[in-house]
Amino acid sequence: MKSLRWAPILLAVVALNASPPDVNASPPDVNGAWKVRPGPKGAAFKTIGSITLNFREDGKRVTGTVQIGAWPGDAPILDGTIEGNTIAFTATGTRTSSTGIPTAKIVATVDGDAMDLVLSFIANVPPGAGGVWEYKGGRLPAGK
Fold it and tell me: Which CATH class is domain 29-139?
């Protein structure tokens, strides 16, 4: 029982010595090409077997292009941001559907050269395209 009296003191010492998160830390280097495919659940929208992303990172902003499967196709990255290891942006495709040209919201989490990506359609959503689609992949070698 005597050892339990030291537990609060030990916890306080550990807490005081822990490094706080660096809020000014640089975002991860996301420059270059990335490719993701349907995640472990295998769930993907039928026209999007894979997504290829080409990022240009500038501090906490990201620009570039994204190729979202056969449909909605190629799109510029709009309003791209990086917070910690999370990239978020919207992209309006170039291939139309019966409801117009769709816009997707993409949120990707980067861990080194690996990426988890979540795609959802937010505008001009055709029937069957609703929902959230999960993808996994990573950075492509330079020149690919």
Answer: mainly beta
